[in-house]
Design brief:
173 residues; alpha+beta; globular; PAR1; PAR1 protein; signal
């Protein structure tokens, strides 16, 4: 009889654990409200992305989805409003592009100490976007701090121009 009681207890525990799965702190992108979707990371370690679609009435609607992009050292993260503001990003944007790096104001905010040193999730995302364009973000940030206009010109003219050592970044022009 004791083993029957034990089985019943295990079954009840299992059912309860499934029922309360979402309340135990697990982040599932599809369960997030749209206003916190972008710059969040699911419990699986995959980035959440805001996507748009046409609903049955023909209007554009938005939904939070799980991307295939895995963040190596971070999971279960919803970006703070402080980081959103410090880094100059828009949580309501659909899709994120490396084109943002071409905007001097965005790059300046991204490279600011308030963002670069305190918001590793956003910096990691843009580090990878920059790398996809052949740009090493730390070098770009060094150039932005010393000569923002030249850094933007180099980025616009040839992304390889921004991939230099820190010695090159400090050299006079």
């Amino acid at each position: 009889m004791a083993s029957s009681s034990m089985k019943s207890s295990l079954i009840v525990f299992f059912v309860c654990s499934i029922a309360f799965h979402g309340t135990l702190g697990e982040i599932i992108c599809e369960d997030l409200p749209n206003n916190v979707c972008s710059f969040s990371i699911a419990s699986s370690g995959k980035r959440c992305v805001l996507e748009n679609y046409e609903n049955k009435e023909g209007n554009i609607d938005y939904q939070c989805r799980t991307s295939e992009v895995v963040v190596e050292r971070m999971a279960e993260h919803i970006e703070t409003e402080e980081c959103i503001n410090a880094c100059g990003v828009d949580r309501n944007c659909v899709g994120i592009s490396s084109d943002a790096l071409l905007d001097a104001q965005t790059t300046s905010k991204l490279c600011s100490s308030a963002c670069y040193e305190k918001c590793p999730n956003i910096v990691d995302l843009y580090f990878n976007l920059a790398a996809g364009e052949g740009v090493y973000l730390p070098d770009l940030c060094n150039r932005v701090k010393t000569n923002p206009h030249r850094a933007m010109l180099e980025l616009l003219s040839n992304s390889d121009a921004s991939v230099h050592s820190e010695d090159d970044a400090a050299a006079p022009a």
